[in-house]
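To close the chapter, one final illustration. This time we ask the reader to focus less on the individual chains and more on the assembly as a whole: which components sit near each other, and how the overall shape emerges from the parts.
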Amino acid sequence: MKKKTTIYDIAKKLNITAATVSRALNGNSKISEATRKLVAETAKEMNYEQNKLAQALKSGKSYNVGVIVPRIDSNFFASIIRGIEEELYPQGYHVIICQTHDQEALETGNINSLLNAQVDGILMSVSNAKGDSDTSFNALLKKNVPLIFFDRKKEIKGISSVTIDDFKGAYEATKHLIDQGYRRIAHLSNDRSLLIFKNRYLGYRQAILDSGLEFDENLVIETHSKVLEGRKTMKKLLNFENRPDAIFSASDFTALGAIQEIKAHGLKIPEDISVVGFSNEPFTRFMELSITSVDQSPIEMGRLAAQVFLEEVNNDKRIKSEKQVVLTPELIIRKSSLKSQILDKA
Amino acid sequence: MKKKTTIYDIAKKLNITAATVSRALNGNSKISEATRKLVAETAKEMNYEQNKLAQALKSGKSYNVGVIVPRIDSNFFASIIRGIEEELYPQGYHVIICQTHDQEALETGNINSLLNAQVDGILMSVSNAKGDSDTSFNALLKKNVPLIFFDRKKEIKGISSVTIDDFKGAYEATKHLIDQGYRRIAHLSNDRSLLIFKNRYLGYRQAILDSGLEFDENLVIETHSKVLEGRKTMKKLLNFENRPDAIFSASDFTALGAIQEIKAHGLKIPEDISVVGFSNEPFTRFMELSITSVDQSPIEMGRLAAQVFLEEVNNDKRIKSEKQVVLTPELIIRKSSLKSQILDKA
DNA sequence: TATTTTTGTGTAATCGATTGCAGATTTGAT
DNA sequence: ATCAAATCTGCAATCGATTACACAAAAATA
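The assembled structure is written out below.
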């Protein structure tokens, strides 16, 4: 009732050795069909369940992987995790999820703690590009523990990653605004030491330059991916003597905040000001005024990250491959930017 | 570089025994201060990290707990998880998160798989009240693996739980609508074999009866916690010859769907129809038309569930306590139901 | 029938850390 | 100076499963 049955219990009952039981259970070819069947039946009878810990200790594989994300309560990260699970569960892996809440201390802390728990690998989206987290990453590399970046990566030699083409996503979003006739397009950016935000900035910038518009650095404001931050930032922008007529936000949350502020000022969207977000969070679709956004196919991203991980663990330890997978984003045009509904194709 | 250092390595280097190293590291009182310090330093030098697997095997504790939720991409569950983490991390535990996506097969599958991974306990929100999952739960009890229900519980003897008073939350929400002058209040329910939905239904019903209003079972419709389901259901309700003038939804998501549908029919909220949701998801606050909802203090719920778990694991195995913690919900009144803004206290 | 293969199991070491028991060394008491 | 008590360490077993190696029994070959 309390004690779990082990292979020794089975062995004793059948008057054989634990070794034989183990082999029988694992389908070792050197075991006779008779005993194999007998062991299997007895195991079932006695409610035997393999102790993964013992197996893990012996084999050095825990069949646990760590997933580190800034937070799980955004659809984007939740979906990535779902993708990872879909790919990893069938292979017998468990996923240990850690949140950093964008605090770097938690990031390195989580890595150490996951290593301590003997995870077979870590899939993560970095929180912070500054600081000394590189040290942790390199330590991982040295220990030969597979590390895969998804979405928010750092460029470190030897580490694989799965990302989307943020530059392209931003470029197309901005281009779309320009095509709709907007001329003063502001950009709600974010910590640009993170590649994703840097690339979104660059894509935005390039689209403006390519269209022969004037690029005004003052229209680029760095903020945080929160609704209230979006409001605050938008407030500033609205007070400009020459206020923007469109917003390309690197985050759906700040885009939402911006929209609230714009409305609070009595301005109309998209007639007066147009807004485009990034990530295609579900609420962008469900808002009364649906928000144009860039989809990042997060489930696919998760699946791919998991696949890269599987490749690496199953590989010979000697081979160190580095794989960079880049997904193509998709612009989803909705009401918040669709001027042409009214003006018809300009 | 590849091999991790073990206590044996430290022992060899210092010409002592692994036993001594182990004791020194664990602060055993029988070790001299001198060797304790020496071992500690050498351990640091050699980059020693305790192998949790070995320790787990020996001690029978993995310091992993399983958390099973229907999904993680709702703020409610994500917050509960955060609460659990906040409480458990400082104690050295890791959290393995599993999603059931409301499929019962996944639920029992997850339980088995977590047990297999030797988790020290399972905290969960049940997905489905039908089916034979009771068997799994009882199996857990027999194995003396702590099991804690949070939010969505099942009434099984010997299993602790942390929930909110759904009846009260629903009662107050409904009462609020009645106080605002609404008379035909519909209820968007959900699988009532789950206690939370049953209790929300009962609270709603009681509030109506207590106010002397007629209770009309036809105004109670069972649906699923999804935006689109909310729309569909609302569509039906709007076609009633005697349509409701208020909606109390057991879910914020269906409430959102209902709102969309109401607007699509050209009706005004809250003038024509009032809407109240449940869970206080962030979007209810951020909508242009903010949604009245019932807050469930999910972080607190998570923390409490974790605390109950800690009590149980730290208890003598012989003592089987059963603890039922019930939180009090809070009605957050917002635009979607605040008629008095216009009519002033009726 | 004698000998070589093949087939099926047992023996014992291993993964890394913990711990009861025993033995050694130091300290204190007389 | 002698013996008891206190303090520190080592020995070896243990947690449960895996696996190289050895060996016995059965089957195949000569």
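The mean pLDDT of chain B is 90. The first strand of chain B starts at residue 64 and ends at 69. With these observations in hand, you are ready for the problems at the end of the chapter.
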